[in-house]
Amino acid sequence: MAVKKRRKAPAVENEIINLTNVSKAYSTGAPALKDVNLHISRGEFVFIVGDSGSGKSTLIKLLLRELTISSGYINVMGYDLSKIKHRKIPKFRRNLGIVFQDFRLLKDRNVYENVAFAQRIIQKSNKEIKKNVPSILAIVGLAGKYKAKPRQLSGGEQQRVALARALVNQPTILLADEPTGNLDPKNSWEIMKLLEQINENGTTVIVVTHNREIVNAMQKRVVTLRRGVIISDEEKGGYIDED
Ligand code: ADP
Ligand code: MG
Q: In the structure, which protein residues have their CB atom closer than 6 angstroms to any atom of ligand 1?
């Protein structure tokens, strides 16, 4: 008879992300992450800040299992990402939404199709797609723009489409790597307010940003990286200036 494996008690309650002594070295250069310990609970909102080159995108890529760690332990949503089988990665990623600085929309498809595409990948029925896509587009404030192509939209609108696409499959965790990096202050605030609203509805949200003003105003948990090391991790934190 199979014996049930006993689970290690998590370091924090309702832990959804656990990085223990994680290092990541690329084949060239100094290690991008060094001995990182990061524990995130289900439902948290976390900013990741730090200078360019401090390892923020590397961290996001490890969480997505786009990269593997060099040493340590990483568990996301119960998946041990050093051990996960290749054929299980799509199922793992199904529970992650991701947004990038450069939107990454399908340029030849309209708004509706860009969002519907995410649902088709996970084989949602047309009936469900027709219900889910309009509903998420309404949430991001694009109810009137179904037929527009990305080039016909402003940067802020394009990022809302990307956000709708990331959210339509109802991910457990939303990862955003500098989502406001190409936006003006007004659109940046609108995207951040949407991320906050999504978090209030239960999604765990992790946002990499350089936007000092927004980080300081929003009073969320702030994790600061410097040259691959977490130098600060504070509840209701602020943006730490590099010396
Ligand atoms: P950030 O997102 O904070 O700007 P990155 O995680 O992109 O930082 O990069 C961290 C460090 O790793 C930098 O020194 C960068 O040059 C290096 N790096 C990133 N990607 C690669 C790669 N594919 N190969 C080699 N070095 C890389
Ligand atoms: Mg980066």
A: 26, 28-29, 32, 50, 52-58
